[in-house]
Amino acid sequence: MKAKELRDRTDEALKELEKSLQNDIFQARFKNFTNRLNDTASVRRAKRDLARVKTLLTERATTSAEGK
């Protein structure tokens, strides 16, 4: 996912995406542990996407707090 795509989403959509990515990471790590994961790079991609989402949510929280 690109950061530009994520910036177009609402806060609620980003929070849902955050939950989804956390679940995907958990499932991928579990599959990797049981040797059922074919694409091990998917864990790393999901972690980076999650970091992008969390960064955007933090940025928006700080800008809204400064604006008040």
In short:
The protein is an all-alpha fold. The chain has three helices and no strands. The chain has one domain (10-67): Helix Hairpins (Orthogonal Bundle).
Describe the fold and architecture.
With 68 residues, this protein is an all-alpha fold. The chain has one domain: Helix Hairpins, CATH 1.10.287. The protein is 81% helix and 0% strand. It is built from three helices and no strands. The protein has helices spanning 3-7, 11-33, 41-67. Helix 2 (11-33) runs antiparallel to helix 3 (41-67). The longest helix is centred in the C-terminal third of the chain and has 27 residues, at 41-67. The protein is elongated. It starts with a helix and ends with a helix.
Name its key features.
mainly alpha, Helix Hairpins, 0% strand, 68 residues
Describe how the helices and strands are arranged.
Blueprint: H1 3-7, H2 11-33, H3 41-67
Helix pairs in contact: 2-3
State the order of secondary-structure elements, H for helix, E for strand: HHH
CATH class: Mainly Alpha
Given the C-alpha coordinates, what overall shape results?
elongated
β-strand number:
0
Radius of gyration: 14 Å
How many domains?
A: 1
Structural class: mainly alpha
| Share of helical residues | over 70%
Strand percentage: under 5%
Distance between the termini: 31 Å
The major β-sheet equals:
none
Unreliable stretches: none
CATH architecture: Orthogonal Bundle
Question: Taking all residues together, what is the mean pLDDT?
Answer: 95
Count every helix, treating DSSP H or I runs of 4 or more residues as helices: 3
CATH topology, what is it called? Helix Hairpins
